[in-house]
Design brief:
26% of the residues lie in helices and 31% in strands. The chain is α+β, with helices and mostly antiparallel strands. The chain folds into 2 domains: 62 residues, no CATH class; 147 residues, Roll (Pnp Oxidase, Chain A), CATH 2.30.110.
Length: 279
């Protein structure tokens, strides 16, 4: 699938804006041909590809205060907003996937302990509908433990190349074991073995210990085609209370439209209102 002209132009503007904002401090060029990966030093910044090549930007980070881009994205048509946030989310996610950006379903999940100590990590969205947004994890991981004690959660979809973000707040609940098993069977065999082998978020002596655990689990399942789901592993559904759509606009006058759930449980019976937030 080809990259749309508007996305290519937007990424090119990002490059040009950075070049202008850090005069004399920037080097821009393509990476070695045929590598398939960006050749970036520790002082480099990577932006998405404009064509078949990746581009890397090397900036002296003493100039961080000057690094900014001028957003020129089209605004959100308020008059065409759907009654619930899910059709617009579907449209945006489809456009991100169509632009061939890496990991379009990646999202930052923020959780907190009961006394308010936060933690974040990036996971992959695996399902969504009007009931909410679903991801899978080890229930014994830090996020699993924190959500068990405090279900308040926030999601962030950082689609920077399109100057877009979606921010979800709500509460997390476990999905059914049947839904978990169905998803687990769709995972590659190695990932299913890895779910058994890894005590996620717990300290481990070294890489060798991890590889030993994986080898032991692999040997244990050598004659088993249908690897079962670990009892300590499963899905969370984030039932949304608010869903904010953020679109970058010129001169930092961004569009921020937030859906706020007024009734129902997040499913098809919920009613929503939309409010505009100052950028």
């Amino acid at each position: 699938m080809g990259r749309s002209k508007s996305v290519v132009q937007d990424i090119s503007r990002y490059r040009d804006d950075l070049l202008r904002s850090t005069p004399g401090r920037v080097r821009w060029g393509t990476n070695p041909p045929g590598t398939g990966l960006p050749d970036v030093t520790r002082s480099g910044v990577v932006v998405p590809p404009v064509g078949p090549e990746w581009y890397s930007l090397s900036v002296e980070f003493t100039e961080l205060a000057a690094m900014r881009r001028q957003y020129r994205g089209e605004g959100i048509d308020v008059g065409a907003l759907p009654a619930t946030p899910f059709p617009l989310f579907t449209t945006w996610l489809t456009e991100v996937a169509g632009a061939e950006l890496p990991e379009p379903n990646a999202m930052v999940v923020a959780t907190a302990t009961p006394d308010g100590r936060p933690s974040t990590r990036t996971v992959l969205l695996k399902e969504f509908d009007e009931r909410g947004f679903v991801f899978y994890t080890n229930y014994g991981s830090r996020k699993g433990v924190e959500l068990g004690a405090n279900p308040a959660v926030s999601l962030l979809f950082p689609w920077h190349a399109l100057a877009r973000q979606v921010i979800v707040t709500g509460s997390a609940e476990r999905v059914s074991r049947e839904a978990t098993a169905e998803y687990f069977r769709s995972r590659p065999r190695g990932s299913r073995i890895g779910a058994w082998a890894s005590e996620q978020s717990r300290p481990v002596a070294g890489r060798e210990q991890l590889e030993k655990r994986y080898a032991e689990a692999e040997a244990g399942f050598a004659d088993i085609e249908d690897i079962p789901v670990p009892e300590f592993w499963g899905g969370f559904r984030v039932v949304p209370e608010t869903v904010e759509f953020w679109q970058g606009r010129e001169n930092r006058m961004h569009d921020r439209l937030r859906y706020f759930r007024e009734g129902g449980d997040g499913g098809g019976g919920a009613s929503w209102r939309v409010e505009r937030l100052s950028p």
